[in-house]
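Key result, reporting period 2: structure in, sequence out.
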C-alpha cells in the first residue's frame, strides 16, 4: 500500500504501571510492536514526546503540527498516524485539521487501556489507523477508534473508560475500519486551512468559562484580568446566560478579547433564540457562535484564530473563517 509515519506523543497507548498509577513512558517503537502492520504497509516511527495528554500544551500542539508538515514534505509518505492520549486527543486533532492542507491523511488514535494490558485496545486501534492512513485521501484529519473513523471536527471523547471512546454527537462516522479494509460513508467538509503559526513569539492565553445556576461574571472577568486573549463561554441550552454575563462579554470584546459561545449540551448547535441574556444578546455583545463545536474544540478554534492574526478584527475574521460553512473535501 505505501509508507506511513507514526508520530508518537504518549498517552495511555504508551503507558506503563508506575507504582501508583499509569503514565506514558514507552517509545513509539514499543507501541508499534504491539500491533499487526497491514500487509504492504511500511512504517517509520518519530518519537516526538511522551506525555499524558492532560499535560498537552499549545507549544506541544504547534510542535506536532510542524512535525506532521515536515513528514509530509516527503512525497514517498502516504499518510501519518499520531498516537495520542485520549484526554485531549480531540483538541490536538482539530488543531492539526484547521491547518492541514494536504490530501494525504493524518490519523489520530490511542487507547483506553494501557500498553501491557492483555485485553488492550491499542493494538487494534493502531492497526486500523495504519490501514486508514495508507488507503484514504482527501478526508482531512481523522480519529480512528474501535473500528470507526471520525472527522476531527466535532469529534469528542464520549466515554471515560469504554473502548468506543470517540464520536461526533451531532454527526455520523466517516468510515468503518476492519481487517478487510476501510469503507468510507461520507466525506467531511472543511474550511480552507489556516496558515501555520509562527515558530516564535508568545503564545496566547485562551480560557474556558462555564455558565450555571447562580453564575455571575466573576470568573469571566478574572480570565480577562489574567490576560486572556480569547475566552470560550460554555453556556446553557442553545447558548444562553444572563444579562450580567452579556455585559461582561461586551466589555471584554471592547478590550479586544475574542469571545466564542458554545453550550454544555452534548448535541446540537448554538442558536440565537432567546434574549434576556440568551444567545441573541450574547451575539449582539460580540460573541461568536461556534455551531456544534463543544468547549475543547471551540477553544482550539479561538486559539488558532489568535495565532493567525494580532488585531481583534483579524482574529474575529479568522475565527469566523474556521467556523464558516465549509467547502466539500476533494480527493
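The corresponding designed sequence is given below.
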Amino acid at each position: 500500500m505505501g509508507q506511513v509515519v507514526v508520530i508518537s506523543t504518549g498517552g495511555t497507548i504508551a503507558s506503563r504501571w508506575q507504582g501508583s498509577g499509569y503514565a506514558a513512558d514507552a517509545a513509539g517503537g514499543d507501541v508499534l510492536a504491539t500491533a499487526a502492520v497491514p500487509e504492504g504497509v511500511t512504517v517509520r516511527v518519530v518519537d516526538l514526546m511522551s506525555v499524558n495528554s492532560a499535560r498537552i500544551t499549545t507549544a506541544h500542539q504547534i510542535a506536532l503540527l510542524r512535525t506532521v508538515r515536515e513528514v509530509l514534505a516527503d512525497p514517498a509518505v502516504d499518510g501519518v498516524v499520531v498516537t495520542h492520549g485520549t484526554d485531549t486527543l480531540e483538541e490536538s486533532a482539530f488543531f492539526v485539521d484547521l491547518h492541514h492542507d494536504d490530501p494525504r491523511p493524518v490519523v489520530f488514535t490511542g487507547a483506553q487501556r494501557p500498553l501491557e494490558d492483555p485485553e488492550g485496545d491499542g493494538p487494534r486501534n493502531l492497526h486500523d489507523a495504519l490501514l486508514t492512513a495508507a488507503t484514504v485521501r482527501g478526508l482531512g484529519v481523522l480519529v480512528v477508534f474501535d473500528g470507526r473513523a471520525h472527522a476531527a471536527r466535532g469529534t469528542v471523547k464520549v466515554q471515560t473508560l469504554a473502548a468506543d471512546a470517540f464520536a461526533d454527537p451531532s454527526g455520523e462516522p466517516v468510515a468503518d475500519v476492519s481487517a478487510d479494509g476501510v469503507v468510507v460513508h461520507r466525506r467531511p467538509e472543511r474550511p480552507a486551512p489556516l496558515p501555520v503559526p509562527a515558530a516564535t513569539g508568545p503564545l496566547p492565553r485562551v480560557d474556558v468559562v462555564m455558565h450555571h445556576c447562580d453564575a455571575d461574571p466573576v470568573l469571566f472577568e478574572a480570565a480577562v484580568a489574567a490576560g486572556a486573549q480569547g475566552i470560550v463561554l460554555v453556556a446553557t441550552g442553545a447558548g444562553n446566560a444572563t444579562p450580567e454575563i452579556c455585559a461582561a462579554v461586551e466589555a471584554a470584546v471592547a478590550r479586544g478579547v475574542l469571545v466564542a459561545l458554545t453550550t454544555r449540551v452534548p448535541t446540537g448547535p448554538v442558536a440565537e433564540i432567546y434574549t434576556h441574556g440568551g444567545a441573541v444578546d450574547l451575539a449582539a455583545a460580540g460573541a461568536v457562535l461556534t455551531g456544534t463545536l463543544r468547549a475543547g474544540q471551540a477553544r482550539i478554534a479561538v486559539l488558532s484564530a489568535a495565532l493567525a492574526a494580532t488585531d481583534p478584527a483579524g482574529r474575529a475574521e479568522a475565527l469566523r473563517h474556521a467556523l464558516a460553512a465549509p467547502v466539500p473535501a476533494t480527493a
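The chain has two domains: 2-190, 206-324. The CA atoms of residues 29 and 310 lie 40 Å apart. This case is discussed further under Risks and Mitigation.
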